[in-house]
Amino acid sequence: MKPQSTALKILTVLSSLLFLAALVMVFFFTPLEETMNYVQKVFYFHISNAWVGMLGFMAAAVAGIAYLVSHDRKWDILEMAAIEISLIFFLIAIMLGSIWARPVWNTWWTWDPRLTTAAIVELIYLACLLLRQGIDDPDRRARFSAVYTLIGSLSVPITFLSIRLFRTIHPVVIGNNDANGQGSFAMTKPMLVTMFFCLLTFSVIFVTLLWHRVRLENLTVAVEERQMEIL
Amino acid sequence: MDESMNVPVLPASKKEPSRLIVFLKTILAVVWKDLVTELRSRELLSGMLVFALSVILIFNFALELDLPTRRIVTSGVLWVTFAFAGTLGLNRSMAIEKDRGCLDGLLLAPVDRSAIYFGKAISNLAFMLIVEAIILPVYSLLYNTNLFSPGLLGVIILGSIGYVAVGTLLASMAVQARTRDILLPILLFPVAIPVLLASVKASEGLLQGLASTEIMPWVNLLLVYDVIFIAVAFMTFDNVVEE
């Protein structure tokens, strides 16, 4: 078994340190929001998780296209790793959002465009994993999941647009504010700094996990090949 | 190469039919094959039809389809019925190809593979439209409402095109998997949500007689969806059937 490379070890330690630093910043550096108090603090990790979720799904779509063009198995492994990790991060983002929404919107869930789209994204990528499970031939599995990821990544923005034709209550914290948004707030400088720090932290964590997952899959493939040799 | 470029287009196309003609002929051949098979066995259409009628029956009891309820839910009931029956038809139509080795035969033919996709998609669309053409009068009759307006029929055709375009591609993936009986709805429903939502909303608007400014955004969405997914299926079908 190949040992972990030094870069990966460093990255793993760095992710842990960054995560601790992000926690400290969220709890001690940022001011309390006036009306929402402590529950607003969930926002920093919520937005970071959602960001990583979207980042991973975009990475998966790009890797899928790269596979369809090159038929190189490394792209398939990258795609699968990105989907698996993003699925979890997106789920955490949805749960953190619910924790925030309960006191602020007075409900765990509402059929708002972003929430609905997030749920559909989860479903699409769960379906993709189920599709992968149902196919044994690695080449066919890679082709199918690449095609499905491509279709999913095209359908998600259309889904978002179509649900947006209804009214939304999700606050738009970054960019211009929607008058219908409930629970939005003005961000002070420490809040902004913390938010960007959290985004950076979670991006690093994503890269670290992705690397670990790709390494694990490569090891699995190596073990399978060794088994085939012996048999 | 240079000489052939100097040859005028018309005489050349007389000797050998142009690629477009061959492409269209291939599509027609696949559609014809499917329609003839269906005409002889009638298993796909009858299955879809009986299933669709049972779904409407279940809705009748589940939702208590009295007059005020019907006003709100008719388009939803219709589209859920079409979607479910459509999934059944798509799965069956591709499973037949796979089981009898017909797909391999088709793939061996020296023709453009996207022509096979369009052929399958058009025959699937034909089956779905036939089922819809029977369900609509039955629903009108059972619930004493007139569902026949040119606008509604247009929306139904547009919605079915989008649903079948992506459904045919996903069905040809699903039948090649071990878990094929459960896979198609799982794959198809999440990505077909925009087309279903837009169809339901546009139909609802038409049935309630809303202004066209409220209906047109949904129709535009349907058109966009149709174009995008026909294009994607056209480009990726090769990857789905390649051995």
Main pleated sheet of chain A = none
Which structural class matches the secondary elements of chain A? mainly alpha
Tell me the count of domains of chain B: 1
What is the number of helices of chain A?
6
Number of DSSP strand runs of chain A = 0
SSE topology string of chain A = HHHHHH
Task: State the helical fraction of chain B.
Answer: over 70%
Specify the oligomeric state.
heterodimer
**Large-scale geometry of chain B:** globular
| Ends distance of chain A | 20 Å
Cα-atom Rg of chain B, whole angstroms? 20 Å
Order of helices and strands of chain B: HHHHHHHHHH
Structural summary, described in words:
- The complex is a heterodimer of chains A (231) and B (243).
- With 231 residues, chain A is mostly helical.
- Chain A has one domain.
- Helices cover 76% and strands 0% of the residues of chain A.
- Chain A has six helices and no strands.
- In chain A, helix 2 (42-70) packs across helix 5 (138-164), helix 3 runs parallel beside helix 5 and helix 4 runs antiparallel to helix 5 (138-164).
- The longest helix of chain A is centred in the last third of the chain and has 42 residues, at 189-230.
- The two termini of chain A are 20 Å apart.
- The model of chain A has no long low-confidence stretch (mean pLDDT 84).
- Chain B has one domain (19-241).
- Helix content of chain B is 86%, strand content 0%.
- Chain B has ten helices and no strands.
- Chain B is globular, with a radius of gyration of 20 Å.
- The chains are: A mainly alpha (231), B mainly alpha (243).
- Chains A and B meet through helix 4 and helix 5 of A and helix 8, helix 9 and helix 10 of B.
